[in-house]
Amino acid sequence: MLVHSKGARRAVWALFFVLFLPVFALPLLVIVAASFATSWSGALPSGPTLVHYQDIAHGDAGQALLTSVLTALAASAGALTVGTWAALAAERLGRRARRLVDGLFLLPVAVPSVVVGLSLLVAFSQPPFLLNGTPQIVIIAHTVLVTAFAYQSVTAALTRLDPAYEQSAAGLGARPGYVLWRVKLPLLLPSLTAAAGLCFALSMGELSATMMIYPPDWMPLPVQIFATTDRGSLFAGAALAVTLMAATLIVLLGVSRIRTKAAYR
């Protein structure tokens, strides 16, 4: 929109594709190609086959994918609840207190995620909070890691929200709870759905902290991808990675449709 001449626009688009294809699109396309291959004898994978996807359909990958989806859904719901509540509460605080709350929520993403996993492993390995070896500790770790993004998204939406709507409802005699539930949250719905989609995608791809704490009966798909490729099965790992990308993309497209409908209400 900032470039007016056709020649300059074409140059910008050409530069975009020159940078986009090698850095972003080409590696993903190579993984997709590798998931249908049995060997890699040249510049690209060769030996087309569907055996890797057949193994996924009849193996443990389906359970690992379900584990990832359930973990991501639970973590997204928890992060959205905590992040929204904290953003609404911080809105009423002073500048110094708000900065303190911002720092607390950004702390988990300011340190390596493996540190978060180790800290939870140490914290929940003794009674009365003995969660080590349970699915709950994995969900808690994912929630801790993605809550900052939900908090930041809702905080940014609150700063853009016109206070006239809330003031008008309060002036008509509406109680604070009614204003929050029927006025403020509906106006925040597009941002809430966007935050939920971001949290879900980040949880689906989380590996470092999960490797520290996951129990054998609750193995998310990224851990299985790492284990498969670590054994040297690169093509089977590529098929698992494509499955993970496809499942995440389907959920994000569904969230995008919900967000679009909410924006036009």
Automatic annotation (TrEMBL):
InterPro entries referenced in this protein's UniProt entry, alphabetically: MetI-like, MetI-like_sf
Subcellular location: Cell inner membrane; Cell membrane
Subcellular location, principal: membrane
Every ABC transmembrane type-1 domain range: 65-253
SUPFAM superfamilies: MetI-like
Coiled coil segments of this chain: none
Keyword Metal-binding part of the UniProt annotation: no
TM ranges: 12-37, 64-88, 100-124, 136-158, 187-214, 234-255
Signal peptide region: none
Family affiliation: Belongs to the binding-protein-dependent transport system permease family.
Record's protein name: ABC transporter permease
Species name: Streptomyces celluloflavus
